Amino acid sequence: MHEYEHVPVTIAAAANEAHGCLAAGYLRGAVAVARSVVESTAKVKGMTGANLAQMIERMYSAKLIREHVRDAADEVRFSGNEVAHGDLVDEPIPQEDAAEILGLMDEILEEVFESPGRVAERKKKRLARDTPQP
Questions:
Q1: What share of the chain is helix, strand, coil (3-state, %, to 5)?
Q2: Contact, 81 vs 35, CB < 8 A?
Q3: Average pLDDT, the chain
């Protein structure tokens, strides 16, 4: 189980479910849930659009994610779409590929929630220290 200290509870639960699927060998499930984590992340940040590609682009335009993280989100989206809309007679997803997709999902959560959360905590501590006590 991964620790997601600053990720909203429902998104953190889904991310942990993706990791659980990966650990159990349910690779398509892991990738599909990773895609849903990216979409839920965009939605909780107020991004709208006709599809996930537009929401990812809006996260980038809003400076919630950097360019390489936008590209990571697109890779998760592409893989999730392949799982959801692909032909199941195609070759299965290799374990290594599914693990990479979940690693990219975690990078997105780090960029959008974890890193800003740690910075906000640090700033709060500094401000509390700098505030005169009566």
A1: 75, 0, 25
A2: yes
A3: 94
